[in-house]
Amino acid sequence: xxxxxxxxxxxxxxxxxxxxxxxxxxxxxxxxxxxxxxxxxxxxxxxxxxxxxxxxxxxxxxxxxxxxxxxxxxxxxxxxxxxxxxxxxxxxxxxxxxxxxxxxxxxxxxxxxxxxxxxxxxxxxxxxxxxxxxxxxxxxxxxxxxxxxxxxxxxxxxxxxxxxxxxxxxxxxxxxxxxxxxxxxxxxxxxxxxxxxxxxxxxxxxxxxxxxxxxxxxxxxxxxxxxxxxxxxxxxxxxxxxxxxxxxx
Amino acid sequence: xxxxxxxxxxxxxxxxxxxxxxxxxxxxxxxxxxxxxxxxxxxxxxxxxxxxxxxxxxxxxxxxxxxxxxxxxxxxxxxxxxxxxxxxxxxxxxxxxxxxxxxxxxxxxxxxxxxxxxxxxxxxxxxxxxxxxxxxxxxxxxxxxxxxxxxxxxxxxxxxxxxxxxxxxxxxxxxxxxxxxxxxxxxxxxxxxxxxxxxxxxxxxxxxxxxxxxxxxxxxxxxxxxxxxxxxxxxxxxxxxxxxxxxxxxxxxxxxxxxxxxxxxxxxxxxxxxxxxxxxxxxxxxxxxxxxxxxxxxxxxxxxxxxxxxxxxxxxxxxxxxxxxxxxxxxxxxxxxxxxxxx
Lengths: 249, 343
What we know:
Chain A is built from 11 helices and 7 strands.
């Protein structure tokens, strides 16, 4: 079996997700031996237009992003969204809350027409995404796990349970016990409860679980004295593009 | 059972002697309201006045939340090596309900199939129990687990200026003779102990009547509206399961090395309250909603093992009540079932 050709690309984002691959440290050598990396925006000079798997970081925030994404999608057989921006739209989506035109004006003033910005969207708003390695940043282990699973021809195990599970496995003190608030009960796990383990509330950077109990989360936050605005901030930080909504409850 | 007395002035020396001989895991204060069990290096680190710990100590030690079970290599030679880490340990200051929870796990992991990973650790664990302070949500006396009949080597009850000590095993007798100045109990001590036990039973704030629950549960089992109402605010977050001293479900995962030359199989605590617990091949989920899952949890706690083992698998520690951010409460729901039947 020949090694799969892998391209790593970045759209609108901070580049941190690509860095996480470079940060693999102990596993980096094995990782680049297991696949044939032919394109890696942040790491190599070479370019290639032939690849089987595309790992895409960042959201679609400009027309140029969209053109690049469509091109990548026309080449790659499998697309993996890496990170919050590419999976949920991430922080970039906060722009949409202002209105893109207004945001352009605020930042670029009378030069706003130089910018081809459009409403920010996650990449799966435009192309079919096979797997998501969510999070800001995504966990290195999960990126490796997805690629590894593809090589072996099995379906990667991506958690669809709330962060609370990971907190309890770790024996963490619940953030709500310390007077803080946390999106953990509706947020998708997989980060090993990174923020609550540092006694900081989860901000749902991996997006919600598939069937979140949003009404219960609103009640919970309300019970802890949060206003509607505070609550929406909690929901919107990483998830303004894909509105988290109550399903079938 | 043998009974002894340990004077409180000799208590500190006893604990320090244990620490010099064993890895002693005991309650430590970790926040205003919470304690947790950790290995301690000196008597001063321990705080026996604890009320709440998020996780049950015995489960944490014997059935770790994440445990490697086997490593393997593939290729020309397939080799499988079982992984089983265990060591001599001593658990100090654990309450009766948690000992009863551990006794239940002992039974689970040694019935039908011997779980070596659990049992090896259990065999090497010494247990010294104490009449711990029940938390506000503790209803152990309602399910008969406020008293431990077995599962400990020593059990201490505070009778004023001394501890009344029940010796549960030969190993316990050895610990007593080797590490402390244990004296024979006098008639006065026996009556002090009886008085203390009566007082102790009254320390449990929550009392719930489980009479007829077994039959009532069947009557309301099909009442969809009731279960939907009770589970309405459930996050399916699994906290209730993971903090439960008797929940034993786990998921096994495979972590294959990226060079595909081998890997590790490990198990993690699982939860019947999360949405994909009942998901099977083909995409069918036989417990697709919160109401079904909550009903199943109560069935497992209050009925299944009454049939199988003749006991509740709920020890009434109240941890699930304390951990639930949605305020789902097992003893209130027991009453809700009763109420539904009486309508």
